[in-house]
Design brief:
6-stranded parallel sheet, 16 strands, 329 residues, 6-stranded antiparallel sheet, Rossmann fold, Dna Ligase, domain 1, 3 domains, alpha/beta
Amino acid sequence: MTLKILVTGGGGQVAQGVLYSLENTNLDIEIFLTGNDPFSIELHSRENSILMCNVNDKHYVENLVAVIKKFEIDALIPTIDSEIVKVANAKIEIESKTRCKVLVGNPNAIEITSDKAKTIDFLKENGFAYPITERLEKNGFEKFLVKSSFPCIIKSRFGNASKDVFFVKSKKEAQKWIGNSDYLIQEFLDPREGEFTTGIYTDKNGITVGACTLKRNLKNGGTQIGERIINATLEEPLLRMAISLGLPYLNIQSMKIDGKLVPFEFNGRFSGTTGMISKVFNGPDFYIREHVLNEKLKPINNLLRFYVSRGSYFGYFTQEDLDSLETSS
């Protein structure tokens, strides 16, 4: 039987990685894609594309259910940061109204990964390494200066891909964020030893069946060039973090400080490097096999060292192409 897989966020870097991974599996699947931009190249390059309302639309979940029913979707893979919490909270509703499996983790863990303040709380409470961080509310700024100093980082609790992240060198520069509880102040982690991104798949029994760490160079907040790093000692604390959270797939971003990885951000969803690390393990394939087909996964022991680089492309379409896009309404 052919499985129908719906991927959201068409045109986004995360969706592109998921699509690449799905296209490089031997599963019998048909891919459907949603997006809210009628000018998305990805939507126009695929036969099964659906134009959706914005994630923040109050009818988003309702429209998602309608699309799932209309196309008889077997599994939904959400890829948009602002969508993850909403879909996680609506997972029971969506699955009860359709025959679709919603491939997203439990809401409590998703909330931890979606709020950088709660990510730091999780790391502290579980004895993991973390950067000195304070919420910028009440006397948070003063608390921070007792433990750390300038330069430092100010970032939104809910931002992603380096959005709303500011390098600050003085109190004067920090002033406009002081008292804003939606922002954090965080110690500056020196990048000279490298910035890293790690994808981890943990099965239903809490066993790591796939892990890959890339030392990365960034462009526009995403990984442009990655170097596969094979170091079990370096990765071991990250695997324990993933097991503690209980999410099938977790992406961890970290800096190497004094020979150890210090996490500064979690993504409780497939990340922009999902396609890159599919050379080691295929996260979307694992998720479908385990949670849709109920297969038992075997741990991957792939020790291949490689470099990977992201490219780009463009496409052409007509007014007729725009008019022909399937819509969710």
